[in-house]
Design a protein that fits this description.
Length: 405
């Protein structure tokens, strides 16, 4: 009797979850027609959490059911070609046992993992890891390249969901919700090079930077490549903040045509501010998060504004181009403030300003921005935004915004 009661309860509970997911998706459709794309995608993600098999939500995020599971087009292509996914080694032909036994297929023959590592020690002959949106070259290890690819793909998905109208116009999003357009997807393959240590990284990128600048990651728009090495924090733990920061620059620069003047005349602060915001990205088992009070950038912004009394009014900040901001002696404080303002525009008032922020970013990257662009997009004068930002900082903490894995 208890088993039957438990089974009946489970069936009713599952039916309620499916019904709730359908209701959330209908609300998402209403939101997209109401020009609220950020809210629409949050509702789509919530629908998937209630019903992981919700067909319309899966379709919108680019998934198709294949062999009983949900996969992206890239994954389906690999599976059809006879490849198998391995958590350590990535996509491999059906030779997993030999890899797990320590063998590697290199230059037409099987050798030991140690022999392959020696052969690939020079980055020119490094491992090449292909993921859905990235090609990664590394001389760290195959496993490190696969792990980096997994991390970049999850960042990509979070970025795509958080900045929906940067990837597609509002009209395109409406057509996708109404099944009159293809799910979002990018044909761009982003390039990343992952060096095994700081010395090799510095030798490759050092000539592109002033002699007194030390970086832990870099994106160069002229080579359309991001450069990284395994970084650590002060306690010796892996530190991925530079990875998320530079990969964000890459995504914004390569997803749509970028004007050469983007951020050079004015409005540069948000290009760095939004990349600093993306440093808050965290991976979890069932979902990933953006934002939240655990972000060191946001805490620094709060402290400098409310404790140190440092704040440059938005009306002045937006006039600064790249050279003016990067050569300002207050650059560290300006970066903190920019990060805090980005958090504010992403999350304040239940994310009311997020879509306007994306509109602002589109204008900058398209070279169509003006000094007044941000104020016009959000519908608020700069002094009012300054006041709202201070109140936002005073009312922390801010709950993280969940994004789908």
């Amino acid at each position: 009797a208890n088993a039957k009661l438990s089974s009946d309860w489970r069936k009713r509970f599952d039916a309620m979850r499916v019904a709730h997911a359908n209701s959330l998706f209908q609300l998402a459709r209403q939101s997209i027609h109401g020009q609220r794309p950020s809210l629409a995608y949050e509702l789509v993600l919530e629908a998937l959490r209630c019903d992981p098999d919700h067909e319309e939500a899966r379709r919108l995020l680019g998934y198709t059911r294949f062999r009983g599971n949900w996969h992206t087009p890239f994954e389906i292509k690999r599976l059809r070609a006879g490849y198998v996914w391995h958590e350590q080694f990535g996509w491999l032909p059906a030779s997993l046992a030999r890899y797990e036994a320590g063998e590697r297929f290199y230059s037409g023959r099987w050798i030991t993992a140690a022999e392959e590592a020696r052969a690939r020690s020079n980055i020119r002959n490094g491992w090449r890891v292909e993921t859905e949106h990235y090609t990664i070259t590394t001389n760290v290890s195959l496993e490190a390249g696969v792990d980096l690819g997994r991390r970049l793909e999850r960042l990509y998905r979070a970025w795509q969901q958080a900045f929906a109208t940067f990837c597609a116009t509002p009209d395109q999003l409406v057509r996708m919700f109404e099944r009159r357009g293809q799910p979002r997807g990018s044909s761009v393959r982003h390039q990343a090079i992952y060096f095994r240590n700081r010395e090799e990284y510095q030798a490759a990128v050092g000539s592109r930077l002033p002699v007194d600048i030390e970086t832990t990651g870099l994106y160069l728009s002229d080579t359309r490549t991001a450069y990284f090495f395994p970084d650590q924090d002060e306690e010796g733990n892996p530190d991925h903040t530079s990875l998320y920061h530079e990969a964000t620059h890459q995504l914004f620069a390569e997803t749509r045509p970028m004007a050469e003047t983007a951020g050079r005349r004015a409005n540069f602060w948000i290009l760095e501010g939004i990349a600093c915001y993306m440093e808050s990205f965290e991976l979890h088992e069932t979902l990933d998060t953006l934002g939240g009070t655990r972000s060191p950038r946001l805490e620094a912004a709060r402290h400098r504004a409310l404790v140190d009394g440092f704040y440059v009014p938005l009306g002045e900040l937006v006039t600064m181009g790249m050279e003016a901001l990067q050569h300002d002696p207050r650059i560290a404080m300006l970066y903190s403030q920019s990060a805090g303002l980005a958090h504010f525009l992403m999350h304040a008032h239940d994310s009311r300003y997020r879509d306007a922020l994306v509109e602002y970013l589109v204008a900058i990257y398209s070279g169509e921005d003006r000094i007044a662009t941000l104020a016009e997009a959000v519908g608020q004068a700069f002094p009012d935004l300054d006041d709202e930002y201070r109140e936002f900082l005073k009312k922390l903490p801010v709950e993280p915004a969940a994004v789908a894995e």
